[in-house]
């Protein structure tokens, strides 16, 4: 990747990670593995089997977005100190996006930075959060408010870890994959449409193809814009709407994937109103989302509340809302001229009484 290249190892077996590390990390080096209990039960033994030449210490914290905060960072820091982790040490994040963001922020800040590896175990983490070098914790004033660009040494992606992922968690990653298809890979969109049933049945070869293509879109975009100065904004497709929705609902009763899904539906609606895409393309987007059990409508909030929340989006620039819209399936662009009337209309189309 531009500036800070690192390998993204796909279909890599957890137990083989040691062979990869031996090339760059001395035997005997301290490795702190950060994870969550459920993931440890499922996968830690396999990971540890490949790390016998190192001094490994495992630390865990409870699952949940609410754990991604400064208190938990401090507790993990205390455990790292108790282990005696020094500047030569390495931190491995074994888990989903919460583990990756928190362990990554710990790695970025502990002793001003220690080496870090991502071992993503959710679909969202494999196609999205482990790639691009962003790490963060939340603050009461905002999600991911304290963060850094801190690329890992490598991303070690073992597709087999997804076998145990609950379907609702898979849906969060599918929403991001559909986003990647809409903004950057028409063939991926066609592929998702064609293999809906196989994807729902989790057929291995189809998932491998889907994940690899989804990752390729993210890699292409973040490689062009490592520090989020330009094209990386395209990854925000559906998210300015989704974040507004999650925030208006107080982050309860709606998953991130559901927010993104409704956001993608709303973005398609505006794009159609403006003549960027045809009604048939909007329909394809809505149908694909619904095929995976993702919503395209919401109730319990008003369009007015949602528009207000959009004004607070941290991705807005110079007081203007930056809205990413599809201009065809497979391509998106950033717009700064969407009027509040247009946005209200888009919200009215997705909000049902
Ligand atoms: N850094 C970035 O660029 C970036 C991008 C997108 C999202 N994120 C962040 O990612 C986080 C969401 O990540 P997520 O969706 O992976 O959620 P998550 O990390 O909370 O994981 C979801 C649940 O799945 C469990 N789990 C993980 N792997 C499992 C497996 N293989 N089998 C069974 N259960 C498993 C976890 O323990 C957890 O309970 C958010 O905090 C978000 O802000 C970061």
Q: What class would the helix/strand composition place it in?
A: alpha/beta
Please identify the top-level CATH class of the largest domain: Mainly Alpha
What is the strand tally? 10
Query: Order of strands across the widest beta sheet?
Result: 1-8-5-4-2-3
Mean pLDDT: 94
Overview of the molecule:
By secondary structure, the protein is an alpha/beta fold. It folds into two domains: 8-164, Rossmann fold (3-Layer(aba) Sandwich); 167-350, Dehydroquinate synthase-like - alpha domain (Dehydroquinate synthase-like, alpha domain), CATH 1.20.1090. The chain is built from 14 helices and ten strands. The chain has helices at residues 17-21, 37-49, 70-83, 97-109, 123-129, 167-184, 186-194, 196-200, 204-224, 239-248, 256-273, 279-291, 303-310, 340-350, and strands at residues 8-10, 30-35, 55-60, 90-95, 115-120, 134-139, 142-149, 154-157, 323-328, 331-335. A six-stranded parallel β-sheet has the order 1-8-5-4-2-3, with helices on both faces. A hairpin with a 2-residue loop joins strand 6 and strand 7 (142-149). Helix 5 (123-129) runs parallel beside helix 6 (167-184), helix 6 (167-184) packs across helix 7 and helix 11 packs antiparallel against helix 12. The chain is globular and about 60 Å long. The N and C termini lie far apart (46 Å). The model has no long low-confidence stretch (mean pLDDT 94). Nicotinamide-adenine-dinucleotide (NAD) binds next to helix 2, helix 4, helix 5 and helix 6.
């Amino acid at each position: 990747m531009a500036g800070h290249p690192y390998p993204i190892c796909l279909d890599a077996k957890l137990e083989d990670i040691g062979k990869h590390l031996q090339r760059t990390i001395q035997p005997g080096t301290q490795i702190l593995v950060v994870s969550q209990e459920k993931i440890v039960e499922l996968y830690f033994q396999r990971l540890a089997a490949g790390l016998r030449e190192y001094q490994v210490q495992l630390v865990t914290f409870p699952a949940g977005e609410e754990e991604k905060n400064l208190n938990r960072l401090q507790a993990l820091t205390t455990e790292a100190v108790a282990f005696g982790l020094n500047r030569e040490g390495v931190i491995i994040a074994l888990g989903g996006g919460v583990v990756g963001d928190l362990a990554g922020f710990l790695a970025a800040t502990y002793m001003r930075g220690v080496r870090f590896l991502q071992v993503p175990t959710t679909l969202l983490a494999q196609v999205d959060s482990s790639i691009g070098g962003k790490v963060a914790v939340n603050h009461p004033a905002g999600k991911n408010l304290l963060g850094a660009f801190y690329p890992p040494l490598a991303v070690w992606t073992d597709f087999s870890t997804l076998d145990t992922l609950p379907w609702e968690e898979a849906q969060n990653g599918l929403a991001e994959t559909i986003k990647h298809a809409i903004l950057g890979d028409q063939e991926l969109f066609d592929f998702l449409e064609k293999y809906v049933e196989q994807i729902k049945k989790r057929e291995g070869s189809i998932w491998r193809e889907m994940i690899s293509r989804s990752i390729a879109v993210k890699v292409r975009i973040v490689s062009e814009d490592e520090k989020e100065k330009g094209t990386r904004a395209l990854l925000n497709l559906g998210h300015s709407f989704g974040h507004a929705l999650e925030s208006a609902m107080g982050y309860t009763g709606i998953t991130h994937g559901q927010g993104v899904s409704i956001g993608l539906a709303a973005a398609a609606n505006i794009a159609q109103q403006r003549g960027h895409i045809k009604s048939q393309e909007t329909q394809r987007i809505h149908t694909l989302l619904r095929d995976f059990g993702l919503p395209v409508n919401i109730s319990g909030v008003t369009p007015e509340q949602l528009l207000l929340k959009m004004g607070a989006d941290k991705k807005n620039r110079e007081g203007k809302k930056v809205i990413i819209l599809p201009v065809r399936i497979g391509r998106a662009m950033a717009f700064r001229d969407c009027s509040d009337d247009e946005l209200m209309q888009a919200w009215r189309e997705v909000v049902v009484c």
